[in-house]
Amino acid sequence: MPDMPPEKTHCELCNAEKKLHLASGYQVCSACRVIIGNVRNHPEIIRKLWPRFQDEPILPEPCRVEKMEVRELP
Fold it and tell me: How far is Cα 3 from Cα 24, in angstroms, rounded to an integer?
């Protein structure tokens, strides 16, 4: 019988050694599974709470691209 690869026992997000569940393609613990569900299903809550608990914007400021004038070829 060939050697089977060891089954993952650590959460891919927080590295906790717990029982794992498949959530959005990640092998995660139950706490991280809840977080993934909330980020996917309730992003407005994440956007509202993020500034209260983190001292940084949730997304970087968008880059400003200045519109160049269109020139005709000679």
Answer: 28
Which residue range is the domain that position 42 belongs to? 1-54
Q: What is the SS3 assignment for 74?
A: coil
pLDDT tens digits along 25-53? 999 999 999 999 999 999 999 999 998 99
Query: Does the residue 35 lie in any domain?
Result: yes
Q: For residues 13 and 4, what is the distance between their CA atoms, to the nearest angstrom?
A: 24
Which DSSP letter does residue 56 get? S
Tokens of 49: 């709470």
Q: H helices of 1-74, where?
A: 30-41, 43-53
Residue 40, amino acid: R
